[in-house]
UniProtKB/TrEMBL annotation:
<keyword id="KW-0812">Transmembrane</keyword>
<dbReference type="InterPro" id="IPR017825">
    <property type="entry name" value="Lycopene_cyclase_dom"/>
</dbReference>
<feature type="transmembrane region" description="Helical">
    <location>
        <begin position="36"/>
        <end position="60"/>
    </location>
</feature>
<keyword id="KW-0472">Membrane</keyword>
<feature type="transmembrane region" description="Helical">
    <location>
        <begin position="80"/>
        <end position="101"/>
    </location>
</feature>
<comment type="pathway">
    <text>Carotenoid biosynthesis.</text>
</comment>
<keyword id="KW-0125">Carotenoid biosynthesis</keyword>
<dbReference type="GO" id="GO:0016872">
    <property type="term" value="F:intramolecular lyase activity"/>
</dbReference>
<feature type="domain" description="Lycopene cyclase">
    <location>
        <begin position="6"/>
        <end position="95"/>
    </location>
</feature>
<dbReference type="GO" id="GO:0016020">
    <property type="term" value="C:membrane"/>
</dbReference>
<feature type="transmembrane region" description="Helical">
    <location>
        <begin position="6"/>
        <end position="24"/>
    </location>
</feature>
<keyword id="KW-0413">Isomerase</keyword>
<dbReference type="GO" id="GO:0045436">
    <property type="term" value="F:lycopene beta cyclase activity"/>
</dbReference>
<keyword id="KW-1133">Transmembrane helix</keyword>
<dbReference type="GO" id="GO:0016117">
    <property type="term" value="P:carotenoid biosynthetic process"/>
</dbReference>
<protein>
    <submittedName>
        <fullName>Lycopene cyclase</fullName>
    </submittedName>
</protein>
<dbReference type="Pfam" id="PF18916">
    <property type="entry name" value="Lycopene_cyc"/>
</dbReference>
Amino acid sequence: MSDHWQYLVVLGLCLLITLPLEVFGKGVYRQPGRLLRAVVPFAALFLVWDAIAIAAGIWWYNGKYITGIELPPRIPIEEVLFFLVIPVCGLLTYSAVSAILDWSRRR
């Protein structure tokens, strides 16, 4: 595997590993409007923050581990996906743990 795909592969594995958690509780993917309202505003905020840090030379990416595909203003596609994928994985985990704890309290 080319090193340029490592960041994307890790993000894909994060989604794959947390996918089974969807079966617990009300689900995350089964509530797309709620999911978008929870993730998109924060992703946008962090993308602006990233863009400022990149432009100021405070933050950069090792070209060895990214594809080189960038979105304006020079943010690697992997970073955009990071701000979407990781919160989704967190929400899946939180939802599953909450559902399991609720079930265990009812016993």
